[in-house]
Amino acid sequence: MLEVDREQVLAHRIAAQGLHREEADAAALAVFDLGLQSTQRDTAAISLAARLPGPVTEESFADDPRFVLAWTHRGAPHFHRATEIGQVTAALVPLGEDDAMARMGWQRKQVEAAGMSATDSLFTAAKAIRKVVTRTMTKGAVSEAVTRIIPDGLSYWCRGCQATHILEQLMRLAAIHGGARLEAAAQPATLAPLTGRPRMRTTPDPAAATAVVRDYLRLHGPATPSEAADFVGTKVAVARRMWPDDLAEVRVAGRTAYLPESDVDALADPPEPDLVRLLPPWDPFLQSRDRALLVPDRARQKEVWRILGNPGALLAGGEVAGVWRTKGSGRKRLDFTITAFDPLPPPARAAAEAEAERVAAARGFADLRITWS
Q1: Rounded Cα–Cα distance for residues 13 and 218 (Å)
Q2: In this structure, is the dihedral angle defined by the CA atoms of residues 71, 69, 132 and 187, taken in order, positive or negative?
Q3: pLDDT tens across 248-268, in order?
Q4: Can you tell me the distance from the alpha carbon of 147 to that of 155, in angstroms, rounded to the nearest whole number?
Q5: Residue 314 and residue 319: Cα distance in Å, rounded?
Q6: What InterPro entries is this protein classified in (predicted)?
């Protein structure tokens, strides 16, 4: 059994996730095998700027027909290759009622109280979304229309909006099955029919679900069933039903973890992570579920992953070496505050400032100002 240390694992993930900038085309990046999360505006473009050698802008990426934005893993918005959205949708069909209920996450109790199974709730909502979303519509308009045709238990009264809405997590999980995508870069959130509007599939596809876990292990491995389950948004027992056969056991940080056998050689001898990158919140590198391995110090973990308002992460020399935030001054200048956990050598600081220029350009700012703290 191969035994590796955490530095070796991080170096392997940096290479696997394309942070060495060896690909010139976004569609060729391995991170799209799993999907690129885009929780806030510009975060996906900044993730690409960290991986592509050429210029990247939110507008050019959002308008690229090779990609589709949709609520997918855990109900979070992800960009996927348009040619693979059918496979992604198949992978998101729950493998059973336990899987369906687990995916409801923070709204399980409301779904349970509705008097329907989680599976029935999911596809009842999906059918309603398919009926309603026949054109481009804001999320609020979709919610209002869907609420009129779903059972009362699947909606709730929102005091802030003074309106009745479909359960938020249910809507996010059901939209892709209802043939709805998200409009990239639209504010407020806006839905539209998927191109070709594929038929709704309710039968589980274990092979597609297993492919998601395998992709997680390729990009975030070595990892455990618990970590894969957390990414998918399901129970560990369900993740074990998705578990691939072609895996190798690896010892890392005193525990057994797994990755595809085909990746063992790459893990054993990864390229040196002698690079500096500014990663946005929810960047794939920060999506690994073993946060204690990524950032061993607990105080620093709390700086990187906050309950509200995550900063970006400064990646230097194979380590999460600090955090960064920005504040726009109109549309003219972007102000950066970069906080290094430990003193950085001058070349690393200079490289971080060059990366800040790339981030500013990706966000459409011609000027920037950098403050180190």
Answers
A1: 8
A2: positive
A3: 999 998 899 999 999 999 999
A4: 6
A5: 8
A6: AlkZ-like
Q: How far apart are CA 272 and CA 108, in angstroms?
A: 44
User: Going by C-beta distance under 8 Å and a sequence separation of 6 or more, which residues neighbour residue 65?
Assistant: 82
Residues 180, 191 contacting (CB under 8 angstroms): yes
Do residues 57 and 361 lie in contact, with contact meaning Cβ atoms separated by under 8 Å?
A: yes
Number of H helices, E strands in the chain: 16, 16
DSSP-derived secondary structure for 294-343: H---HHHHHHHS-SSS--EEEEETTEEEEEEEEEEETTTEEEEEEEESSP
Question: What residue ranges do the domains of the chain occupy?
Answer: 2-193, 276-372
* Res 211: pLDDT: 98
In this prediction, residue 309 carries a pLDDT of 87
Contact status, residue 36 vs residue 79, Cβ threshold 8 Å? yes
Token couple for 359: 């981030």
Which tens digits make up the pLDDT trace of 241-253? Answer: 999 999 999 999 8
- The Cα 336–Cα 325 span in angstroms is 6
How would you classify the pairing of strands 155-158 and 77-81?
A: unpaired
3-state class of 278 per DSSP? strand
| Contact predicate 174/130, CB 8 Å | no
- Fold for the domain defined by 276-372: Aminopeptidase (3.40.630)
Query: What number of other Cβ atoms are within 10 A of residue 306's Cβ?
Result: 12
Distance CA(60)–CA(73), nearest Å, equals 24
Cα 72 off chain centre by = 9
Residue 122 DSSP SS3: helix
Please list the ranges in the chain whose pLDDT falls under 70: none
Q: Which is nearest to 195 in space by CA: 187, 203, 205, 183?
A: 183
pTM summary value: 0.95
Tokens describing residue 74: 């855990």
